[in-house]
Design goal:
2 copies of one chain form a homodimer. Chain A is built from 14 helices and 14 strands. Chain A is an alpha/beta fold. In chain A, β9, α9 and β10 form a beta-alpha-beta unit. In chain A, α11 runs antiparallel to α12. At the A-B interface, α4 and α5 of A face α1, β14 and α14 of B.
């Protein structure tokens, strides 16, 4: 057991982690060098800032831009460099599939094969999502299982779908059934690790590709399929076990509920994507939980779109919902992001993410606003995201002293 | 392969790392508490600072003062605690000897022995460098090889020289042929590691000490020799392999080219020691390289001399050369040092080193000057030197996202 887990105490205090996805940003030359957090009118956030310790979180390591999986695992207190989540598993979680321990998931594509079995289009002409759904339904009806392994298929956008193998003795260390470029045949999947589990998975995958190929033979252009990113749902010790916390994830998007499920959190779908919806859900979950993770996606979407005004608008909408969240009187409130998504970059970045922690013993910096520049010199310092949970537990009175 | 290497992408962007050796300093009581960087008139550096992320680098670990080898290995992205370079190897690199993989190098001294073979003066009365050169030439002429191993000898200052063993099957884990104090005989070198390679090296070293002793018998006072710091040239994965960078080191002093050679950089000797010479060399190397490391020694020399005005003068000379460097339009420019050499200490120190990183996405702090105090609260934060390369690669668009 690691240090933190060994120090965790039972307590009645409550922690709220409000994650504004992609929160961090850059000074914007077109906006007098302001960031969206600086430009937004956020009176409630300002009041919280003055009572908070400010600081910054480094999601994975200096210079390293995280995806959503590593970004959130870090915030939850799981080192994203040692708690690995495969591509297929993340895709399945993002598609809302509730993976069970031992499940192996893959990202899948329909593709076009020529008469000799050569891949001529890895995306099958980007077939419409409706066609994809029909083909997936056909495969699901015809190939329910192979050996003693069930197949779960879920259609995605365009040519994409997710395949999950559920059964005993499967392993995720299996190579892709995907040549990764046109002009080559689909390679057989093969075990990449020792032991029968990976061999079994490879065998099932290859049988599935064969049987699906036969079922798709008369289709055009989607007469074949590719599977990649095969990976096993990892099994991490959960929040109850590690931190003695009854945790709940309130997130409109399946991906974030999925990652939270890996930490053993209860999962709640709010009524909508807005901050007020998440806060309403928090009100309902309050009595039954000690740790409430609220995920809001709008900041990241605005950043990805390169839309400064939209990011400002989301922040102001979040601000408007804060009084109701404060009315719940969390003992510890943390507001931060899983990574930066700067408007000028239109994508995730490596920049440290602004963070605030508010509690009666947080060492309030007394700074009148919460933004990237204020956070550079705050009392929280610059932490690895994975260390945030320790600070939250400490502020909640939930960590024992180390040593006498 | 480590995380960073696995994320490195091919790109056309260019990175300049300008190292002002021993850059960091302390507030100087005799100069109204200013550091040399504060006191210097540096209009071009000031302009760069305003567009840069400021921060500080910790060369090895808090409180640890690095030598030139670890200081630069860190800046290059090689953890100096795990990428070890032996004393003999560093001495040989500093002497300008181009070591090949497998070479074993040693620091050597002429010494004085009495009739019973007892060391009476470990420095042979500090003979003049000319005498040392004559004796080294004599040894080199008479002892070209032992068994199948070639000997390369190069005279240094006073009683010092460097000995390199070149041949197959050598190992560097060999004890010193040096009692480390007077009044004792020269101990035989012995293998410190398992395997025939270290045994072979010890045998060659002992044979060399014997044969040299015979050749020096009639000399006075330098009638013996000592060898220490035996070490094998390490073989690290280079910049091309690790980071997909075509890298060049532009350095007037052999030591810094030598350490850069361990990272697989191309090596260029500028026409002189001044900043303008290094920049002129950078202009010539621009087209053929993606990463240009420019080393300037003057700041360190002034610090070692305890000469505040000289350090200021070097900084102002560097400042004058910056417009030509900027005219090359590097995508990422980093200016920092390998360690601090504070004027009041007249030597290397452990203090974090000021650093700036300038790129369109660096998170410019907008600070009007670049100095130790401004860097304490910059957006770059305080990083381990070994993590700098990740930030440079990220700013250059040369790092893939980690995880989905």
């Amino acid at each position: 057991m690691n240090l933190l887990d060994s120090l965790a105490l039972e307590h009645t205090s409550k922690i709220v982690l409000l994650v504004l996805d992609g929160l961090g940003d850059l000074p914007n030359a077109a906006r007098r060098g302001l960031t969206p957090l600086e430009a937004a009118r956020t009176p409630h956030l300002d009041a919280i800032a003055a009572e908070s310790a400010l600081g910054r979180l480094v999601p994975v390591a200096p210079g390293v831009t995280p995806g959503s999986g590593p970004g959130h695992l870090g915030l939850f207190g799981y080192d994203p460099l040692t708690h690995l989540v495969g591509r297929g598993v993340l895709e399945a979680l993002g598609a809302g599939i509730e993976l069970k321990p031992g499940d192996v998931a893959a990202r899948a594509n329909f593709c076009t094969l020529d008469g000799a079995g050569i891949v001529t289009d890895r995306r099958a002409g980007r077939i419409p999502s409706e066609t994809c759904a029909q083909l997936v339904a056909k495969l699901a009806a015809e190939v329910k299982s192979i050996e003693d392994v069930s197949l779960l298929l879920q259609a995605g956008k365009g040519h994409r779908f997710v395949a999950v193998l559920r059964g005993l003795g499967l392993g995720g260390a299996v190579s892709d059934a995907d040549p990764h470029r046109e002009g080559k045949p689909v390679p057989a999947a093969r075990a990449l690790g020792p032991g029968a589990a990976h061999e079994k998975t490879a065998r099932i995958v290859n049988a599935f590709v064969q049987r699906a190929g036969a079922l798709l033979r008369s289709e055009s252009p989607a007469n074949g399929l590719l599977l990649r990113g095969l990976s096993e749902r990892p099994s991490f010790p959960g929040y109850r076990e590690r931190f003695k916390l009854r945790a709940v994830a309130i997130a409109a998007y399946p991906m974030y509920r999925g990652v939270a499920s890996l930490a053993g959190m209860d999962l709640v779908v709010p009524a909508g994507e807005r901050a007020a919806d998440a806060v309403a859900a928090a009100e309902r979950e309050w009595a039954a939980h000690d740790y409430l993770f609220l995920h809001l996606k709008g900041t990241d979407m605005a950043g990805e779109d390169g839309d400064f005004d939209a990011k400002v608008a989301v922040l102001e909408e979040v601000d408007a919902a804060l009084p109701r969240l404060l009315a719940l009187a969390p003992d510890v409130l943390c507001i931060t992001g899983d990574h930066s998504t700067p408007v000028p970059m239109k994508g995730h970045s490596w920049h440290p993410v602004p963070a605030l922690v508010r509690s009666p013993v947080c060492f309030a910096d007394g700074h009148p606003r919460f933004h990237e520049k204020a956070c550079r010199a705050g009392s929280l310092g610059t932490l690895a995201s994975k260390d945030l949970i320790a600070v939250l537990l400490a502020n909640a009175g939930r960590l024992d002293k180390y040593g006498a």
